[in-house]
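Researcher: We're teaching a course module on how sequence relates to structure. For the next exercise, students receive a sequence and then see the predicted structure as tokens, so they can try to spot secondary structure elements on their own. Here is the exercise chain.
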Amino acid sequence: MTMLTSPPGEERMATPFLETVFANLGKTPDKPLLVEVQGKALVPCAASAVMDLTARARGFLASCGIAKGDRVGLLAPNSARWVAADLAILAEGAIVVPLYARQEPRELAGMLRDCAPRLLLVADDKLEATMRAAWPDACRLARFDEVFAAAPRTAPPHAPGAADPMTIIYTSGTSGEPKGVVLTAANVDFMIPRTVEALGALNGSRGSDDKVFHFLPFCFAGSRIMLWTQLFRNNPVMISTDLTRLVEEMSAADPHYYLNVPAVLERIRNGVGQKVRERGGIGLALYRAGWEAWQRMRKNRVVVVDRLIYGLARWIVFSKIKRTIGPSLEFLVCGSAPLSEETQSWFEMLGVPVYQVYGLTETTAIVTMDTPQDAQAGRVGHAISGIETKLTEESELVLRGPNVFPGYWNRPEATAQAIRDGWFHTGDQAEIDAGGNVKIVGRVKNLLKPESGHYVAPEPIEERLREAAEGIEQAVVIGHGRPYLAVIVQGKADDATVEAAIGKVNADLPHYKRLKKFLRARETFTPENGLLTANQKLRRAAIETFHKDAIEGLYR
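Model: And here is the predicted structure for the students to work with:
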């Protein structure tokens, strides 16, 4: 193994997360700490109201006999009441098990059987009925209406020890059964000061609260850390309440920034491009010319006229696009999966820098973060201070530090496989430049080995194919153990467009990485049909199984 990145930084002492949040609630009772975005309306929930909701939920938990170390499931979409329930469970010393409300019920039931909670809090009667059907031997289920009608409990919140588990977050399960990641108070208390510092570097000296919009489910590690960071900062959070009205909600919120995943940014970029093409005329010509000029400028291949073309395009076209997607947007934070270099560059062209964050649930959501000084499109930033990172001989990124989880719930063998000789193995293939900036190449387990004997990471090829034709929305490279590589594609692009895109991609690839054939996906990959994880990652084995007969025909 070769050490390639920075050693641990200085450890910083900080007030524990939970203590700080409850102090904030009492310090600024009239402050609208949570703001639900309901269509065009902004519905504030003052800190005093959050405190009251939390106290009532604590009263309900106490009436159910919930004690330190008990697991309590939380199944609901994002809302102010979700946040209050989360804080209440933590305040009682119990372990929060947050669950994705749109996940397949049988998968949710499997997770709950695994962690054996004493209580499951659900948002409404629909979710209650769904879970009772999927989990006949369920623990006690309680709807939010019942939870928040209880008499309030006002005792000081439980002060967790460093090793005490605070939450169990189930991984998305791209390659198998989801596992419960245990995160402790020490993990959280290490991470929050670093995210606070990072947001300070991005925001500068604003002198007022940030306008933060949040639509990703709070049950995911990255979303949870973002939420907790804002509560720790005593900074309001605007919460999406209806993903089907997301565009309307974003317009009403008009945020300075928000956390997102690559799929959302690529959807925005493709949607804007489609509208510009439909309108045509001088706007389309300037859009294309401005993009080409920007690309040359970014690569330092600028010619004299490029700055003029880009300036004109930004004044006439790009400024209007920027106002459409977010008049007050200052930057975006992107995580969950590597972001296409071209998509990141496209947003920068509009004047909206995108800062990438890389991490896993097992690393308390974060390993690396971009900074304004050295953010590079296609890379995910430097390792955060206080941790060590290095690459193995197989170029797998491994790390150790206070952000690494202690283990999976009830899975000692899986824990031993993930943490070896004190180093957590991320499963991600990476490259690290001389300055320590990390690029994620792909998943080690996703490596394909066709009959040529070469190892091929599919992710870079898939990204280049999507970039080569806007109508290709999803792509999965296949060919492990086969004579050659092929690709499953989904989207509106016709066969001629797909073939042209494959030809363009193949032109710069060695022979063993070239795509020889393609196959049309039978339907869009979604979490609902089991072909994507809940946070939009490809379930490759499931996709190949789903298309098994067509794949056999392709290679026959």
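Model: If you want an answer key for the exercise: Residues 19-153+161-178+205-243 form a domain with the Rossmann fold fold (CATH 3.40.50.12780). Confidence is low (pLDDT under 50) at residues 1-14.
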